[in-house]
Each structure stands twice: as C-alpha cells, then as structure tokens.
N-acetyl-alpha-D-glucosaminyl L-malate synthase BshA (Stygiobacter electus), 375 residues
Amino acid sequence: MKIGITCYPTYGGSGVVATELGLSLAKLGHQVHFISYAMPHRLNRFVENIYYHEVEMSNYPLFEHSLYCLSLTSKMLEVIEYENLDLMHVHYAIPHAISAYLARQVLHKVNKNIKFITTLHGTDITLVGLEPSFMPIVKFSIEESDGVTAVSRFLKEKTLTNYNVQKNIEVIYNFIDLEIYKPHSSIEFRKHIAPNGEKVLVHTSNFRPVKRVPDVIRILEKVNKEIPTKLILVGDGPDRSECERLSRELGIHQNVFFLGKQDALTEILNAADLFLLPSQSESFGLSALEAMACGKPVVSSSVGGLPELVIHNETGFIAEIGDIERMSKYTIDLLKNEKKYLTFSKNSRERAEKFFDKKNIIPQYIEYYEKILNG
Ligand code: GMT
C-alpha cells in the first residue's frame, strides 16, 4: 500500500505512535509518506520506503494567524496525486481530519477518490475538541472520516458520548517495541543519580498542566520522608519552571533531576524503580507502557484509559486524581516490599508483551486499512 500519514512531529504522544507505525509499515514493504510541518522526531535517519513532505506555510502579511489547515490540505492533495496514495491516515483529529476531509472533497470534484482514517489520541477528544470553537468541526470530521480508530476503549466511549456520534470506532491500542524497551542494566546512570543506593522514581511527559507534574514532586517529598529517594524528570513544557520552583520551595531540589528532552529513554527508565503518572486526563498513557515494558511498575491516577493499561495491585497501583497521599503510600509500599516489587515488575513486562506488542498491533492497523479500502 501507499499510505500518507499526517501527525504532529512531536517528541511524545501521537507523534511517536504515528512515526513508529509508519516505520513499521515501511519495514513491511509499504510506502509511507509523512506530511507535517516539521520532520517527525523519530524520523531522524534514512529509512527505505519512508518519504517526508513538509507543509509550506504562507507568511503573507494579511494573515495574522497561520493557515496551517489549508496549507496542509494543499500538501495532502499534491502528495496524493503525485505519489498515487491509496489512503491517508491522520493522527490527532484537530485539524488533520478536517484537512483530509477537504482534500477528499477537492478530489471528488475531479472524480478522484481518496479514503482517510482518523486516529483519535486523547486531548483532541477530551480537552481541545470540547472547546465550543472546535466541537462542531471535530464531530463533523469524525462523522466524515472513512474510518476512525481510538487508542483505548475509554477514548472510544468518550467520543461516542461527548460528540453524540453514531460511528463505528475501532479500538487499536498503542504499542511498544519490546526489543528496544526491555529490562536491562543501567548501573552507571543509576550510580550517578543515586550514588548512595537511594530508590529512584521517574516521570516523563510534556509538562502540560494535564500531566499534573507538581503532584510528582509532592509524591517524592512524602516518599523521601520514609525512604531516601531520587526523582528523574524527563521532558519539557509549560509546567517545568513551576516544578523547579516547587522542588526548591519544598527543599528537595537536590533529589530531583530535570533532564529535559532525552532520547535515551530505555537507559533512563532502566535506572529507575518505579514510574509515576498522576495525570488529570490520559486516554492511554504511552509513557507508562514504555516503563512497563522495561519492567517498571506504575503508580498512576485512575483516569481515562489508564486502568486499561495499569492493573491495580498487579502491575502497579491507581488512585483518584490528586490523591497524592495514596499515591505516595502505594509507592512506599512497593519500594519497601522487595518480593511484591519483583512480582509487579514481572507482571508489568508480561502485560506489555501480552497486550501491547508492536508485532501484534501493527497487523491490526493493516487489517483495518484493508477493511476501509475494500468497504
Ligand atoms: O496531550 C498529550 O499528552 C499529547 C497527546 C498527543 O496526542 O500527542 O497524547 C495523547 O496521545 C498519546 C498517544 O496515543 C496517549 O498515550 C496519551 O495518553 C494522550 N494524552 C492524553 O490523553 C492527555
């Protein structure tokens, strides 16, 4: 197949899922054309069957605001025509699904066809899409997509109820490369972080308010009162400064390592004991899956799709949003009880292998593409 993929070129989340999907499809012999405003983060090397098309932006002075949606549509049209694409697959509904819809309409006018699939990822449905200025257009673009997938059962249900749509939505879970994300020793890095044998917690995110990263700092403060513990924070975003300030205010900044954006995630995850994800909203929690694949139990909030990933009292613990007290207790419990910790660690890896292995999920996408193309 010749597939066009549009996604945000970002460091985490939907950008990573789309890029890893494209790379896997290319490896299987499909031709994949990425269309975005910048090179997707993980596309930083030559890969056979992968092409990248950058959306050109007009900077005409009349346009005070960027017309990305329209520029993207034009680029889609160009790539669909020149590369003879079979299908467009857009990740994150806003505004990608609308651009794909417009491209399809333009082609209809000249008696050409293109089908497009929209994959819903999270905040496109649970947060941004609910804003009154976006809601009607998100609903419309879901209804008009030839196929729609969601990354968790939670996200599927939310979409059907919040947008009152009658649409078949296929749940295709996010996936992980178990050969890259696996338990291995990371002794040197761990020694650097925790030279006196302290325990190590880790959190990775885009530091948006929805991730509640200050809760991670507050959990560390409580855990540290019982067990000497360090915290690694990976990523960057709007709440980072507030977190740096909070860790100083609480007098624990010497125990917090702000690493910023990092590529060597498996080294970092493997240097830690446990992953924290106290999000306000989380449709799936790819970062938690990355940690689980490395055999790290997760303590998280019980929101969204997280209970589909983190099994309470088996691969980690879940608690109400903002219940720092409980999350700290769960963390301490696991860090103090070695036997329990090892069981949870083993369970985490096994769950990643059983339900979220890339080898099993990629064929689900291919099957879905075929179903939509033949439907
Ligand atoms: O808002 C974000 O956190 C980024 C967002 C995205 O689409 O880039 O992440 C969402 O998609 C990820 C990949 O499917 C999911 O693992 C995240 O849970 C989801 N984030 C939220 O729902 C907040």
In short: The mean pLDDT is 97. The pocket of GMT is lined by residues 10, 13-14, 17, 92, 121-123, 126, 151, 174, 206, 210, 281-286 (CB under 6 Å). The longest strand covers residues 31-36.
